[in-house]
Amino acid sequence: MGALADLLATRREDILQRFEHEVRAHFSMEQLPRSAILDTVPVLLEELYELLRTTSSGETASAVDNSVRQTARTHRIQRRALGYDVTQIVREYGLLRDCILALLEEAGDALVIAEQRLLHRGLDVAMADAVADSEHGQDEERQKAEQDRAALLERERTARSEAEQQRALLEGVIAQSGDAIIVADAQGVLRLFNPEAERQHGVPLREVGPRQWVQTYGLSDEEGHPLPLERVPLYRALQGEHVSDEQLWIRRPDGTRLPISVTARPLVRPDGTPDGAVFTARDIALRRALAQEREEALALLDTLLATVPVGISCLDRDLRYVRINPTLAAINGVSVEQTLGRTLGEVIPDLASIIEPHYLRVFETGEPERNMEVSVPPPRQGGAIGHYLLSYAPVKDREGRTLMVASAVVDITDLKRFEEQLRQTAEFRERFLGIVSHDLRNPLGIINLSATLMLRQEALPERGLRLAQRIALNAEQMARMIGDLLDLTRGRLGGGIPIEPAPCDLGPLGRRVVSELEVAHPTRELRLEARGNLQGEWDQDRLAQLLGNLLRNAVDYSPEDTPITLALHDEGAQVRLEVRNQGEPIPAGLVPDLFEPFRQGELRGTRPTSGLGLGLYIVQQIAVAHGGSVEVRSTREGGTVFTVRLPRVTSRRA
User: How many Cβ atoms from other residues are within 10 Å of residue 36's Cβ?
Assistant: First the structure.
């Protein structure tokens, strides 16, 4: 290695100190620390040393050149952050070169031309990279400037287009405004007159000054007198006054007069000097008509509220009375005048806790609540219990917000009293039927016994025999009807039909009932199906009555040529009894009331039946008394099936 390489290896700190001194002297960097001034210079000195060493040993210097470029790029970025331009960066590299050569000269070492050339080469690489980057940066700056200029032009075009659109929009708004808009310049000459202004005044724009306004446009007061100029709102706005919602009249050329509500404001330039005035006017003829209609509607509402026999009120969100009619005021015991503006708790404190939750729920949900029955003492009156039907409904604005809650109160005390009277009457009627039915059994028994004795006489003529048979048959039918009436009375008034459960087998019971019915109806086909264990604890006589009623019902409402089936099934803890018959299905509308008393099915194609319509009611009562149930299903394909389910063990009821 030569003297220059040796200098870079042994006196690097001297080079850095001298470089720092020169940079501070030439670039006024007294405030910067040494590390910021030196930056990547120590690395660059190492790379210059490697350049001299590798070249002297015959190795390629391209890798070192790349390292120098990378170091120079890092140094350039740091210097630009400090505000350097490319000239100052190149000048720094020149100062570094001078520092190295000056130290070499002071040492008295001989400078080898090859080493000097390599030193210059390394520093030239750094300088060239800085210059190239600067030119590239200038190109980017020029390109960016062109882009900024194009963007500025585009923003200007967009702003101009938006301004035109805003102007067109403003002109459209002015032209389509429902208010008259008139603009005068600083001298009072009219310059703008939109279509609504032309409609209201009945004349188009005429560029006249203030002295001609009143006559040209027919401005007048309510009595029809021409309006003095000093009272004209537009003229007052020219004088700097702000006018709001003043009413005046326009006399049109056709002689009609129009009331208008006027607002006028002065116009001022950005520098504060007057620039005219703007005048807006609204046709209030419709408003007056609507106000009159509103007053008439409110008067009609007040009349309706005063005369309707239903209590009506409206409460706001604070549960204060906004409206109340005399009917509800009378129910509450507080006059209309004393109610308005007061809260629910203040007017009817004893009932507030009952009623308030309904109001709050309607305010919260926006949904009505209807027909809630309450029974309370009349507020502030004492006495007997009153019965009321209450309904609540939200009063909403156009956006659907609940503003108030309206309530309707119907006094149903008299209705309840009438219903109680009806209930007592019905109870009396049923008790009367029970008493009469019970008392009829004795004379009916005598009739039946007499008919039986007559039938046993061998010498009885044929005519007498037929009469005795008829008496016996009708007596039996009357006995059955009386028995049904007694069962009805027990079911309605006695807590249900009494039963006496005892061990019973439904198989033999079913056969007996079917046999008895076959004797009475020899032309009908009656079938019995019995499966499984059919033993349990039931009232045998009552179950015989239940089966007889169901089978007779099937006989009455099925065609003569169709079979009737009694099916008894073992279902473990319970048994199932079914009576099936064919024929027309029971109309769906009759099914819900089929087990009610005094109901008889009206089916086309069946013969008329005798009886009171209590058979199915008694069937249901017997099933319920045993802790069971009864149901029916009826279709054209499957026929009609009455199903009774009974638990095997029934608690004793008497």
Answer: 13
